[in-house]
Amino acid sequence: MSTNLEKHYQKVIDENNLEQLRDILVSKDSALSNRFRALFNLKCVAEKFAVDPVDANKAVNYMAETFGDDSELLKHEVAYVLGQTKNMESTTILRHVMLDAAQQPMVRHEAAEALGALGAEVALDDLQKCLDNDPHPAVKQTAELAIARIQWEHSPAAETEKLQQSLYESTDPAPPLALEKEYNVAELQSLLNNQDKPMFERYRAMFRLRDLDTEEAIHALASGFNDPSALFKHEIAYVFGQMGTPLAVPVLTEVLGRMEEAPMVRHEAAEALGAIATPEVVPVLKKYLDDEVDVVRESAIVALDMYAYENSNEFEYAPTA
Ligand SMILES: [Fe+2]
Ligand SMILES: [Fe+2]
């Protein structure tokens, strides 16, 4: 979920109380876009745990009720949101979801990533279990990354390293490479694509490139789409959605069109196109409204809903879910 999408879905329904938001979120009869709006409205409440812990924890537990749903897309977004709230109330449910073989891979992945974002030391043993036992490579790699991030956050390096102030509000799966060492884009690109390095290091190069935000850095990031790891490629797509750069539209369009590509990668490419939201993304996304992969089809619906909402004078679109 990109920052742009998130900002979009935080609007609209603040006038509902917590229970109404929960009812919209868990109702399979609500349009998917409304369920997303309810989710991001609940997130705003869950974040305020220092001021209003009772409502904040209620919001967390209402969000967690969604894990009984079937939609892989919605549940993974819930896990993402729980990880971004900094509210530790969710660590128990996230550990459970991560290790639950009945949850789909993107949901288990996002639960593991959320535990990393929370810096949840209490989850280290379960993350190790996930790393050892999960059958899905992208989930395993997420557990490896989350362990590295938690260890980093609780190490002296987290205090002493100088990091560029991020333009984005997200807690990322890894911090950018520290500013103490100078890198040019070519060096960052080679670290990014070096499959012999730990994923955590490669992600640190990715986020340093994101924060450079130059055309050269964008091309370097796009080179990551040739990697064998679905996890890695989906993160590149996520980063492009965050940056909101129209320069990434051609490569994201190509990645979304790779029918043999992992669903999580195509899903993230669709969401990134929705976040970039230039007129050229509309015909691209419309092509995937009937995609046979659920998370791709639902991402196209959500992305087009956002586009229509932001550009409601220019384009008419009725959400179908
Ligand atoms: Fe993800
Ligand atoms: Fe995602």
The average pLDDT score comes to: 92
CATH topology of the domain at 1-160: Leucine-rich Repeat Variant
The CATH superfamily of the domain at 1-160 is Leucine-rich Repeat Variant
Structural class: mainly alpha
Into which percentage range does the β-strand content fall? under 5%
Small molecules bound in the structure, each named once? fe (ii) ion
Number of strands: 0
The amount of helix comes to: 55-70%
* Head-to-tail CA distance between termini: 19 Å
| Low confidence ranges | 314-321
Binding site for Fe cation 1: 76-77, 109-110
GO molecular function: deoxyhypusine monooxygenase activity; metal ion binding
Binding site for Fe cation 2: 234-235, 267-268
Function: Catalyzes the hydroxylation of the N(6)-(4-aminobutyl)-L-lysine intermediate to form hypusine, an essential post-translational modification only found in mature eIF-5A factor.
Short description:
The protein has a domain at 1-160: Leucine-rich Repeat Variant (Alpha Horseshoe).
Structure description:
This protein is globular. It has helices at residues 3-10, 18-26, 32-46, 53-64, 72-84, 91-98, 105-117, 124-133, 137-153, 156-160, 185-192, 199-212, 215-222, 230-243, 249-256, 263-276, 281-286, 294-310. The chain has 321 residues and is an all-alpha fold. α3 packs parallel to α5 and α5 runs parallel beside α7. It has a domain at 1-160: Leucine-rich Repeat Variant. The longest helix has 17 residues, at 137-153. The chain is 62% helix and 0% strand. It contains 18 helices and no strands. It binds fe (ii) ion (FE2) (2 copies). One fe (ii) ion (FE2) is lined by residues 76, 267-268.
